[in-house]
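ok here's Pyridoxamine 5'-phosphate oxidase family protein, seq below lol
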Amino acid sequence: MVKLNAEVKEAFLKSKVIPLATASKDNVPNVAPMASLYLKDDETIWILNNYMNKTATNIKETKKAAVYIYGEGIKGCFQIKGDAELISTGADYEEAKKMFLAKKPNFPAKELLIIKITDVFNCSPGQGAGDKIL
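and the structure came out like this:
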């Protein structure tokens, strides 16, 4: 697993909505905006599954995901890839459900998507675009 550095963590924490990319076992891509997300630690992203459909199916099929961090007030542009799993029981699920529902109590909180970070790439234009940075 890869640990995020201060620059990438700061960008993640400033993001309100992050696009989550997955692909099916037949390599059909899917991107969906995620707002119920949390940086659990330097190696782990938590995203609550409230309304995932194709995304959840893709995660179950391929166990891979990527997020893209870019926007106003964010220094740099980062693509974070990782190994992904969905869980609906256990301590992590219960902790995440409680935390997210405290802010948005009307969401269904069906599952917790856990992404263990494996790679981080620079996606800023210019020299170094596409370079693996972590």
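fwiw DSSP finds three helices and seven strands in the chain. kinda neat tbh
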